[in-house]
Design goal:
Blueprint lengths: L1 E2 L6 E2 L5 E2 L2 E7 L2 E11 L2 E5 L5 E6 L5 E7 L2 E7 L4 E4 L5 E5 L3 E8 L1 H12 L10 E4 L2 H15 L5 H4 L6
Antiparallel strand pairs: 1-6, 2-3, 4-5, 5-12, 6-11, 7-10, 7-12, 8-9, 8-11, 10-13
Amino acid sequence: MTQRQNTFSSSDQNGVSEQPHHSSVNSDCHSLEVSQSHNIAPQELVVESLPNHLIVIHTTPQPVQVMERADSLQVKELAKPGDVNLLSAGSMSSCRWDKAISFISLNVSPTLIEQVSMQTNGSSGAIELIHTFHARDAKILQISQWLLDERHNSGAGRKLYIDPLSL
């Protein structure tokens, strides 16, 4: 991972640095990681090759101008609360912003996607995730909230939300 500026950290009004909160859920080689980051300082983040599929949900209360890129797809738009970005594993990704932002990110292993595809379609070879920026998807928003709730409740919701994915 190459970063053009600092790592994901920020300072509040009192100068206290805030690191993103992470939660991982693993089942054998199938994994899903959810993290929530608040008030991340302006910077440019570049990842040469994403190790997992990445879903980013913008949560900054006010719109923030962002320049985002995934391979050859590039957009410069206002990121609004609830906007969803989807980036596939192996792709180059970059994002630049000039005001503090907040977001939820879901890192999903390609193996988990294949497992879910096998369970639902009976085949794992036909999955292609298409880079998407600033989509609106109520189901992804709800799932991300459930996963964050699960993390905050010390894994109490694992049986309900995560385990069914890895059967």
